[in-house]
Amino acid sequence: MLKPSADLIIGPDQSRYSLVVAVSKRAREIAANAEDKGEILTEKPVDMAVHELMEHKYVVIEPKKGKSE
Fold first, then answer.
1. Which of 4, 9, 41, 69 is 20–30 Å from 24 (CA)?
2. Residue 45 in contact with residue 1, Cβ under 8 Å?
């Protein structure tokens, strides 16, 4: 399987950190859903999450910059 480059997935205003956080959150959701249903995954949850992101099934939302509390 060919692994996509992070530069091809994220836009110019997005950070790699946000990409990693979004993919890891989605991968945990995929793994938890499979465990709840008793399914055995043949593909790694991270790979599935990256493919879903590339297929625009979810988006990475960047936090607002410059706001301090």
1. 69
2. no
Q: In this structure, which amino acid lies at residue 43?
A: E
Where residue 5 falls among pLDDT bands split at 50, 70, 90?
A: confident
Within a domain: residue 37?
A: yes
Q: Of the given ranges (22-26, 36-40, 64-68), which has the lowest mean pLDDT?
A: 64-68
d(CA 46, CA 9): 14
Number of compact structural domains in the chain: 1
Q: What angle do CA 58, 62, 64 make, to 5 degrees?
A: 145
- What is the domain range of residue 35? 14-54
Assess if residue 4 is contained within a domain: no
pTM of the model: 0.80
